[in-house]
Structure formats: structure tokens, C-alpha cells
């Protein structure tokens, strides 16, 4: 058991090093919070959605979601519109700028992952993915 604890401590340190290296790359959304990125990602995957639907999907409170969305709207990433039949309903849609921003972010992530996995063989990459899947399955 002691050996496992040592290996987990080593793994924790390695993950911290990987995160530090990844942060050196300047993502196109450095000015956005993690929560705002998650909101944009979820929003860009839909035509339109309500605050409640978005909050439920991301398991956030409606108030926290609204605050983050207000900032995204001020930045030009979110468009709000009232439902034509029920004026109480407010629809959220990603702006064209938000869609472009998320495309850039996906390209950034892809480039970062390609850099990280570039030193591995195809077999090693497959083994890594299989191990991560196995680890996740123990959490479910």
C-alpha cells in the first residue's frame, strides 16, 4: 500500500507539472473564467436555450448562471430574446463571435493535446485512453 501512495504522490506532481506547461500556452479565452467557457461550450452546442435549462445541464444555480451570462452578454458572446408567445421566457443564443471563439478554443485544445501525445506511439496512446476509461468506470 505504501508503494501505491508513493506512486499517487508522484502522479499528482506530474499532473501539476503538465498543467503548468499547458498554462504557458496562451489560449484564445484567457480572459474568460472556467465557468464562462463551460457555459459557452454548452450554449454553442444548441440553437437556443433558457437559463434554467443551461443551469440544469451544467449543474449550476440559476443565479450563478445568470451572473456569468450577463458578463458573456456584455462581452458580445450571448444574445437574449423574449419568446414571442410567452414573454416570461428568455431565450439565449450564442453570437457569431461566441461560435468563432469556441472554434478557436477547440483548435487550441487539439493542438495542446497533439503536443502532449506527440511523444507517444499509437499503442501507448490507446493504452492511456483505455486506462483513463477504466479509472473513470470505477467512479461511476
Automatic annotation (TrEMBL):
This is Transcriptional regulator. PROSITE patterns: HTH_MARR_2 (PS50995). It comes from Paenibacillus elgii. It comes from the Bacteria. Keywords: DNA-binding, Transcription, Transcription regulation. Pfam families: MarR_2. Residues 1-137 form the HTH marR-type domain. GO terms for molecular function: DNA binding; DNA-binding transcription factor activity.
Amino acid at each position: 500500500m505504501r508503494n501505491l501512495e508513493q506512486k499517487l504522490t508522484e502522479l499528482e506532481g506530474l499532473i501539476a507539472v503538465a498543467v503548468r506547461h499547458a498554462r504557458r500556452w496562451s489560449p484564445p479565452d484567457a480572459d474568460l473564467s472556467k465557468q464562462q467557457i463551460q457555459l459557452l461550450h454548452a450554449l454553442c452546442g444548441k440553437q437556443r436555450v433558457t437559463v434554467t435549462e443551461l443551469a440544469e445541464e451544467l449543474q449550476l444555480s440559476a443565479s450563478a448562471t445568470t451572473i456569468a451570462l450577463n458578463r458573456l452578454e456584455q462581452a458580445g458572446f450571448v444574445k437574449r430574446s423574449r419568446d414571442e408567445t410567452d414573454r416570461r421566457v428568455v431565450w439565449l443564443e450564442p453570437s457569431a463571435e461566441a461560435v468563432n471563439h469556441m472554434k478557436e478554443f477547440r483548435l487550441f485544445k487539439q493542438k495542446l493535446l497533439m503536443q502532449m501525445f506527440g511523444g507517444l506511439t499509437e499503442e501507448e496512446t490507446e493504452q492511456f485512453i483505455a486506462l483513463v476509461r477504466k479509472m473513470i468506470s470505477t467512479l461511476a
